[in-house]
Design brief:
alpha+beta; 3-stranded mixed beta sheet; 17% helix
Length: 143
Amino acid sequence: MKTLSSVFAPVAALAVAAAFASPVLAADLTLSFPTAASQGKIMVAIFDSAAAYGGQGQPAKVALLDAAAGETHVTFDGLPDGDYAVRAFHDLNGDGKMNTNPFGMPTEPYAFSNNAVGNMGPASWDRAKFAAAGATAQTIDLK
């Protein structure tokens, strides 16, 4: 004959295991671009490593915001907690690429997380990276 304690023992074991299991941590990252003109599209790329940010990998997430329709912020839900950096540019003419002058300097607004600036190139990972955990927000000024 089964006793109540033998019936509930597996349930109790699962409850104890769940209580001590590591929680799944996730960040909800909101990016805002308040200086965006109301035309074209804002292209956003989020990187989760220095290597990917430096061009040796793919972005962790990407977004395309329709600035002409008033979209100037985006939220990425459920990112693993960790360090991230953002690159964004405002494609004013809608050709799908960042336009440059003959010297290679951008002619369309661009920005990096932390409003970091570079020296003769993009902002470094160390300047642009930020920790994301829980609800995290970045306000980025396109210049």
